[in-house]
Specification:
Blueprint: E1 4-8, H1 13-24, E2 28-33, E3 44-47, H2 53-60, E4 67-70, H3 79-98, E5 105-109, H4 113-116, H5 145-160, E6 163-169, E7 172-173, H6 183-197, E8 201-202, H7 207-211, E9 213-214, E10 217-218, H8 219-231, E11 238-242, E12 248-249, H9 250-261, E13 265-266, H10 275-278, H11 283-293, H12 306-313, H13 324-328, H14 337-350
Parallel strand pairs: 1-2, 1-4, 2-3, 4-5, 5-6, 6-11, 7-10, 8-13
Antiparallel strand pairs: 9-12
The structure holds NADP nicotinamide-adenine-dinucleotide phosphate (NAP).
NADP nicotinamide-adenine-dinucleotide phosphate is lined by residues 9-15, 33-35, 48-51, 71-74, 89, 109-111, 169, 171-172, 176, 179-181.
Length: 355
């Protein structure tokens, strides 16, 4: 039977890279978003707002996906609101698809906030989890939209009889424009501003993150794990961590990024220096850089998410991620982390997004 993919959130950082991988593996692929204008080539657009059940029902009528990949989220001001809306999006989607009876597997992308807690209590002193983060660690005793989304998947799987897999990446490195969290592009834009203005490339994070071990998740390796889990016999109905497979220290990677951009850097010097403050007056500077170099996007907010970079790099502990569940079942993909960053920088340059 032909595999038909529905990538939900197909314009985001995880969804668009997944859609590209599916197309390269010759899957018939639909891509759903509220504004599905900039989908990867070959993806059939489905325009829908997942917060509106009737709208989703109408939008998915007549398509019969066998594999549904959920790569979407909305950011609200409290975790209680995050739980409400993000769970509703998953519930509405799966309810709308239920009548089709075509779905065989559903993947859900969540992340390490499963272990570290939601943003409002994110890896705060006093509630720090044991690292490496392991798939079998218990849920935290606090509301978390990832748990609410998982529960919607489990409920719908019981109702409709499909299999599922949950995927928990660390910080995702990959190309996307106008999405909510993108550390790689944020650093590329910040470094380009440093280059143009002569400013130093200042480490914005904590001492623990500068000195400690870390890992990240290339959007492409996440895509491969999603497809692997949804098509490999025995891999279903499991939660998987997913990272590149190597570890690094930011005090090693930061100078390498500075070298790539040919700029001077400053490491940890005794206190956190948030990137959000460092970049707060950079909108006009980016506009000017864009004009000078004929860049394609002059809106800094569409490229940089310093609030998220600050949260990730400001954590008071080192964070590394164990991948036992998929390694045991034979997922053996590896991605070198410095190549993840350098490949992204080259792509952003080639697509005229940075000078
Ligand atoms: N980015 C990271 O570094 C990272 C790291 C770890 C975990 N994660 C997790 O990965 C998951 C996916 O996040 P992401 O970073 O890939 O998100 P993203 O890049 O911000 O993309 C979100 C996608 O969802 C769509 N969307 C948002 N609201 C929608 C709605 N109401 N109806 C339909 N589509 C909607 C967006 O398109 P439209 O705006 O056009 O609707 C977009 O395609 C999240 O749970 C996130 O927490 C991300």
């Amino acid at each position: 039977m032909e595999n038909i993919a529905l990538v939900v959130g197909a314009t985001g950082i995880t969804g668009s890279n997944l859609a590209e991988e599916l197309i390269s593996q010759k899957w018939k692929t639909y891509g759903l978003a509220r504004n599905p204008e900039s989908l990867p080539k070959g993806v059939d657009p489905i325009k829908a707002d997942l917060l509106d059940l009737d709208h989703v029902r109408d939008a998915v009528e007549g398509i019969y996906p066998t594999h549904v990949f959920i790569n979407t989220w909305v950011r609200r001001s409290t975790e209680a609101e995050n739980v409400k809306d993000n769970a509703a999006m998953v519930k509405n989607l799966l309810e709308a698809l239920s009548a089709q009876k075509s779905v065989r597997h559903v993947t859900l992308v969540t992340g390490l906030k499963h272990y570290l807690g939601p943003f409002e209590a994110y890896a705060k002193q006093g509630a720090l989890p044991e690292t490496p983060l392991r798939e079998e660690q218990e849920r935290l005793d606090t509301p978390n939209f990832y748990y609410a989304q998982e529960d919607e998947v489990y409920k719908a799987a019981d109702r409709d009889g499909f299999t599922w897999s949950i995927h928990r990446p660390h910080t995702v490195v990959g190309k996307a424009v106008g999405n909510l969290m993108n550390l790689g592009t944020t650093l590329a834009v910040y470094a380009s501003i440093c280059k143009a203005t002569g400013r130093k490339f200042i480490w914005p994070g904590s001492e623990a993150q500068w000195n400690g071990l870390s890992d990240v998740t290339d959007a492409k390796i996440l895509a491969k794990q999603l497809i692997w889990a949804s098509t490999t016999p025995g891999a279903q109905n499991t939660a998987y961590n997913i990272v590149n497979g190597d570890v690094f220290r930011w005090k090693w990677l930061w100078p390498r990024i500075a070298e790539w951009f040919d700029i001077e850097y400053e490491g940890y010097t005794g206190s956190i220096r948030p990137l959000e403050e460092e970049m707060q007056n950079d909108k006009l500077i980016w506009k000017k850089i864009s004009e000078d170099h004929g860049l394609s996007i002059d809106n800094l907010d569409a490229l940089a998410s310093p609030w998220h970079t600050d949260l990730d790099l400001g954590r008071p502990i080192e964070v590394i991620t164990d991948m036992k569940n998929s390694r045991i079942k034979g997922f053996s993909e590896f991605q070198s982390t410095d190549e993840s960053f350098m490949n992204l920088f080259k792509l952003l340059k080639a697509e005229n997004i940075i000078p």
